[in-house]
Amino acid sequence: MASALKDPLIAPADAYNLKLIANVHPEGWVNPEPAPRYNLVVVGGGTAGLVCAAGAAGLGARVALVERKLTGGDCLNYGCVPSKTLIRAARSAAETRDAIRMGVTGGSVRVDFGSVMERVRRVRAELSRNDSVARFTGLGVDVFLGDARFGGPNRIEVDGQTLSFRRAVIATGARAIAPPIPGLAEAGYLTNETVFSLTAMPARIAVIGGGPIGCELAQAFARLGAEVAILEVMDQILIREDREAAARLEAALVGENVEIVTGCRISGVERRQSDKVIRYEGAGSAGELAVDEILVGARRAPNVEELNLEAAGIEYDRQGVRVDDYLRTSNRNIYAAGDVCTAYRFTHVADAMARIVIRNALFWGRARVSRLTIPWCTYMDPEIAQIGLSEAEAVARGIRVTTFVQELSEVDRAVIDEETEGFVKVLVTRGGDRIVGATIVARHASEMISEIGVAMAAGLGLGAIANVIHPYPTQAEGIRKIGDAYNRTRLTPRVKRIFDRWLAWTR
Asked: Nearest Cα to 380, choosing from 180, 112, 90?
């Protein structure tokens, strides 16, 4: 067994996980001899770190990459890749059950959970070559596996070796942590980091936290056959999302027999024979909930411990490493990127921040985080995709906006697909068409939101979107219909009178 498989987060020790470990933490790896000095030392081999290392090396920089556990970080090993693979299997089960709406009938759906999880491990292993130690050494990066500690303002210690640098970047990411609930640790719980090691389906699952991770996995497990309850401390699930979008997703979960308890206060957890019993009080309800597994999806903490950041003069707090708009830390030769320094803990944001670091750290660039137009998605069914400001955020900032909404029930392709439970919502500046934010709820909202992102980044307004020919029939036509709705507001009574006179005169 490969040594990294002793980590409980990677189990079972099958051929797929062995392949994964061979790529992202090869057994018997010997760290190289350090160069006298590096242009860039990257601490952390997740998305931000890998993009920094590959990009800098590709430009000719001498680069070292330090990873203490598994290259690929959360996204490959415990996050995006395994979760979306599991979600796809759950969607297949739901589509099969719903096929009768299309006039297609067949036998009952039987989920082989062991095979579902085997596919999760297979897909993860296949994709791991992109983040492998071998790939990065092939790019000219010196890869060091071990614990990194700053030994001063311009050097890092790794397993007795010293890496001197001109610039460095901290990209150590974040980790799942459990809320301080009495008895939870003793009863045992899963996180997004351990749930993908399951080989047998828990019959009953309680999900603590109604954020994106909790809701995505709650729906997936419910579709695969588990009884699922979400316990959320706030008065709604998906608290960061547009209120109407969150309500649509809550209705979808309830329609799939997921129990949701909001305003929930958990007083304790205890073991009773094979059950894990949660004592709680919620909005209008109180009692005990007996389950087989508890999944914690509520909290994450930045990985800043044990780096000896004080030795390098780097300031940090509970939210992570402190950075300015250029991603510089309090040590101007050291930068940070990804989950360790931002509240936007998404893979694509880590990637974008890494590109800023490359420009600013190596080439005296002036790229700013504040200029990024950031989308994010919750991969439920339907999906939520958000970019820019929500209506509530616009109000809080004193920005006057006009809101345009297109229900998917009036978009032909959504009707054809039986996927009408959703909408496109776009916010523009009052009296103009500059887009300040958008929300899409749709089966493939994550694929649709980028059109609006391109428009926002390029400074194009809704009027320009209306001029783009969209293929028919597609659900993205809903975006074009929003553009048409904006154009109709330009036909004021005065303009209409002018048109009437002109057309009468030219008849």
From this structure: 90
Q: How would you write 224-290 as a 3-class SS string?
A: CCCEEEEECCCCCCCCCCCHHHHHHHHHHHHHCCCEEECCCEEEEEEEECCEEEEEEEECCEEEEEE
The domain total for the chain is 3
- Tracing tokens 């490359």 back to the chain, one arrives at 358
| CATH code for position 236 | 3.50.50.60
Q: Identify whether residues 334 and 399 lie together within a single domain.
A: no
How far apart are the C-alpha atoms of 288 and 269, rounded to whole Å? 9
- Do 167 and 311 lie in one domain? The reply is yes
Q: Which residue has the tokens 């299309």?
A: 102
Q: Do 139 and 219 fall within a single domain?
A: no
The rounded distance, in Å, linking the Cα atoms of 140 and 53 is 9
Q: Pairing between strand 401-407 and 423-429? A: antiparallel
Residue 156's contacts (CB-CB under 8 Å, 6 or more residues apart) are 41, 43, 66, 148, 149, 150, 162, 163, 165, 168
Amino acid at 7: D
Q: What pLDDT, on a 0 to 100 scale, did the predictor assign at position 3?
A: 47
pTM: 0.94
Confidence of residue 231 (pLDDT cuts 50, 70, 90): very high
The answer on 33 and 160 residing in a single domain is yes
Report the alpha-carbon distance of residue 29 to residue 45 in Å, rounded.
Answer: 15
For residues 427 and 477, what is the distance between their CA atoms, to the nearest angstrom? 17
Residue 492 CB coordination number (10 Å): 9
Do residue 192 and residue 289 come from a single domain?
yes
List phi, psi (to 5°) of 235.
-85, 0
Question: What pLDDT score does 490 carry?
Answer: 80
- On whether both 166 and 314 belong to a single domain, the answer is yes
The predicted-structure confidence for 91-120, as pLDDT tens digits, reads as follows 999 999 998 888 998 778 899 999 999 999
Nearest-angstrom CA–CA distance, 439 and 437: 7
- Supply the DSSP string of 136-184, one letter for each residue: HHHTT-EEEES-EEEEETTEEEETTEEEEEEEEEE---EEEE----TTH
What are 8-56's pLDDT values in tens digits?
568 999 999 999 999 999 999 999 999 999 999 999 999 999 999 999 9
CA distance 164 to 150: 10
Range(s) of the domain holding residue 441: 382-489
Q: Are 166 and 253 part of one and the same domain?
A: no
For 3, other C-beta atoms within 10 Å of its C-beta total: 12
